[in-house]
Amino acid sequence: MPTVRHETLQDYHERLYRVLLHIDQHRSESLSLDELAGIACLSPYHFHRIFRAFVGETLGRYVQRVRLETAAVQLQTTAKSVTDIALDAGYESAAGFSRAFEERFGMAPTECRKAHRLELQVRSAQLKTQAMIASIAPDIRQRPDTRVAFVRHTGPYAKVGAAWDKLCAYAGAHRLFGPNTAMIGIGHDAPKVTAEDRTRYDACLTVNDAFKPEGEIGVQTIPGGRYAVFVHQGPYDRLSETYDRIFRDWLPGSGETLRDQPAFEVYVTPPDRTPPDQLRTEIWVPLK
Predict the structure, then answer these.
(1) For the chain, first and last CA: distance in Å?
(2) Which of 33, 76, 171, 228 has a CB 3.0–4.6 Å from the CB of 285, allowing a cystine?
(3) CATH fold of 6-120, please?
(4) Helix (H) or strand (E) holding 13
C-alpha cells in the first residue's frame, strides 16, 4: 500500500479545521455538503469520505449531534424558548426539533429542562451556607478578540495532554513563546451531554496576526466582549466542580444572560512548575 505524504496529511488537517470551525460558528444556518466541501476545496464526493475518515462519523451525523448537544446545554443554562433553541439548532419547526431531540436523548426538550431545574433545586438545598455561593462571585471584565493557534482534541478531557504536547512542541520549534503568551483551553462540549469519546477541546496559544495555520496547528479567534471571570485554584481534574458551582449556584441568581459561545480557561500558572494544589485557572464565561 502506498504511503501518504506528510504534506498531504497536513493539507487535509488544515482543510478540515476550516470546516469544523465554520460549523461551530454557523451552527444555526443551512450547512450543505456542497458549501462545506467548497470551504475544504474538495469535491463533495471526496470530501464526504475524507470527513468521515478523519472525524470518525459522517458529516450529517456530526452536524446533527453538535446541534442537538448544544441545544441540550441551552435548555439547561438559558431561558430561551424551545422554539428559539430549535431555530438556533437549524430546525424549521419546534416539532421537528423535538422529535430529533427525543430520539437523541430519550426525552422531550421540555422534560430535559424540567429535569435539570429539579436537579438544581435539589443541589441548592444541599448547600450548607450562603458563604459558599458568595465565594464563587466573579470579576466582570471586557476582553478584546484573541487570535490563537490551536490543536483540537476529540475524546475525554482527561487526555488533552497529547494536544498540548503537540502544540507546545510546535510553538517551541517556531519560537512562538513570549512573555505575554497565554495558554488557553476551550471545552466545546458538556461531558454530561456529549459522549466522552466525542467531546471537543482546543489547546490554544495566543499568536499575532502574522501567524499562519500549518497542518494540525490551526488558527481561530476567540471573540472579545463581556465576560464573568472565575478563579479555580487546585488540580485540573477538579475543574468540573467549579463549573458546576458557576452554573448551579451563581448563574441562576446573577441576572446575567450567556452568549452563544463556549467558556474558556486561561492557565495562569505553568503546570510543569506548579504543585497541583497551587494551580490557578481563570474560567471566562461569555456574557451578553
Answers:
(1) 53
(2) 228
(3) Arc Repressor Mutant, subunit A (1.10.10)
(4) helix 6-25
Q: How far apart are CA 60 and CA 138, in angstroms?
A: 39
Residue 74: name the closest of 253, 196, 218, 251 by CA.
Answer: 251
C-alpha cell at 72: 441540550
What pTM value is reported for the model? 0.76
Please list the helix, strand and coil fractions of the chain in percent, rounded to the nearest 5, in that order: 50, 20, 30
Least confident window among 43-57, 61-75, 83-97, 146-160: 43-57
Closest CA to 279 of 260, 266, 261: 266
Question: Which one, of 115, 195, 201, lies nearest residue 158 by Cα?
Answer: 201
What are the extents of the domains in the chain? 6-120, 139-287
> Cα separation of 217 and 107, whole Å?
39
Q: How many residues does the chain have?
A: 288
218-255 residue pLDDT tens: 999 999 999 999 999 999 989 988 988 888 778 878 88
Ramachandran angles phi, psi of 27, nearest 5°: -60, -35
- Calpha distance 256→253 (Å, rounded): 8
CATH architecture for residues 139-287: Alpha-Beta Barrel (3.20)
Which three three-digit cell numbers place residue 242? 467549579
Q: What integer pLDDT is reported at residue 114 of this predicted model?
A: 84
Sheet containing strand 139-143, edge to edge, reads 139-143, 225-233, 280-287, 264-267, 183-187, 200-206, 146-154, 218-222
Tens of pLDDT, residues 194-221: 889 999 999 999 999 999 999 899 999 9
